[in-house]
Amino acid sequence: MVDPEPIRFLDAEGRYAPSASAADYAAELDGVSIEDFQQWYRDMVETRAFDTEATHLQRQGQLALWVPSVGQEGCQVGLARATEPQDHVFPAYREHTVAKVRGVDFVELLKLFRGFTHGGWDVTDPANGNFHLYTLVLAAQTQHAGGYALGQLLDAKARAASGTLDAGEAGIATGEATMVFYGDGTSSQGDANESMIFAASYQTPAVFVVQNNGWAISVPVERQSRTPLYRRALGFGIRSVQIDGNDPLAAYAVGRHFMRLAREGAGPGYIEALTYRIGAHTTSDDPTRYREADELAAWRERDPIARMETYLRERGIDDAFFAEVAETADRAAKRVRDEILQLPPPDADSMFAHVYSEEHPRIEEQRVWLERYESSFEADQENQV
Ligand SMILES: Cc1ncc(C[n+]2csc(CCOP(=O)(O)OP(=O)(O)O)c2C)c(N)n1
Ligand SMILES: [Mg+2]
């Protein structure tokens, strides 16, 4: 089997030069205005400024951990912009641009990494754009998304009042779909593979997005799979393509096409976005221990933000716009920094709530231990007086 060229509209520098494989998707870009493209650029620059600020906050001891997404903003903005308000999105933990586009405030992301919340934002609040919680247990979100997409199908079926659902039944328009994000390493998890079987069998409106950034911490993708990842989905009977993941136009066009097919009842899809994590896996990682400098340099040349800038300049956008976006992004990042540092910490007791639905002796033991530990400081102070 010969793999088609990854779908792209922009060349490595950002000039409009679609690959032959992009032909079927070009029409999806017809409705995108120059103002829309400018907004996508703004989304990426604001996310990167925030992301950089969050890394600094972690280094200053203000966050327990941070997960940088630098380099992956291109596929994220295109795919997020391809969703409709009624769609649901299930992220892993590096989808900061997607969070922004769906409406989640960056302060909400930081609360999680500052240890101020067990989970995060209120998913039932429409302002958060049906963007579900970050999931650090690899591939768990593929099961959550798989179940959600089945629910979307069952609801549509119930609305059509046509009885129970049979495996393999296709053609039920749901009007809404589910997009789930995960990584190349996560694609090896049993959960991710079981989710594909389920989606294919029931023809659910699920679109799987694999951001192949080349690495699962220190394990290269070549060790995870003997074939390109997109081909695995074909084996499950799911339509699947590989895109240039640093080209926002390709991500949007293919994402929009696949999501529309899913909403119309034509079943699931799979998109492998070829991208690169420019920074560390997390702030606990040192990628210079396992990656070559040449590889990093080559990917820096294909930075999605730089490519989008070239594209916009070719369309006549000038310096004033780029300067204004940079300034706005810096201001926005500072606002997020100020807000998170001003938030009062939650009551320590709250960490024991909601661990189990009912009282639990182990949790109670730990709660009492913490109470005694905290009060030991008061006793110390009294002894010193
Ligand atoms: C079930 C499970 N196993 C192992 C881990 C530890 N772990 C965290 S991230 C990671 C690598 C994931 O790589 P990939 O799916 O490529 O995503 P990326 O971090 O590159 O975006 C591993 C092994 C985990 N969080 N959950
Ligand atoms: Mg990876």
Automatic annotation (TrEMBL):
Record key words, sorted: Oxidoreductase, Pyruvate, Thiamine pyrophosphate
A Gene Ontology annotation in the biological process aspect, one of them, is: branched-chain amino acid catabolic process
Question: Which CDD domains does the protein's record reference?
Answer: TPP_E1_PDC_ADC_BCADC
Cofactors named for this entry:
thiamine diphosphate
Give the residue spans that cross the bilayer: none
EC top class named in words: oxidoreductase
Q: Which Enzyme Commission numbers does its entry carry? A: 1.2.4.4
**Any Pfam family matching the protein:** E1_dh
Give the catalysed reaction(s), semicolon-separated: N(6)-[(R)-lipoyl]-L-lysyl-[protein] + 3-methyl-2-oxobutanoate + H(+) = N(6)-[(R)-S(8)-2-methylpropanoyldihydrolipoyl]-L-lysyl-[protein] + CO2
- Reply yes or no: does the keyword Oxidoreductase apply: yes
Gene Ontology molecular function: branched-chain 2-oxo acid dehydrogenase activity; magnesium ion binding
The Dehydrogenase E1 component domain covers 42-340
Functional description taken from the UniProt entry: The branched-chain alpha-keto dehydrogenase complex catalyzes the overall conversion of alpha-keto acids to acyl-CoA and CO(2). It contains multiple copies of three enzymatic components: branched-chain alpha-keto acid decarboxylase (E1), lipoamide acyltransferase (E2) and lipoamide dehydrogenase (E3).
Q: Which family is annotated?
A: Belongs to the BCKDHA family.
Output this protein's name: 2-oxoisovalerate dehydrogenase subunit alpha
- Organism of origin is Leucobacter komagatae
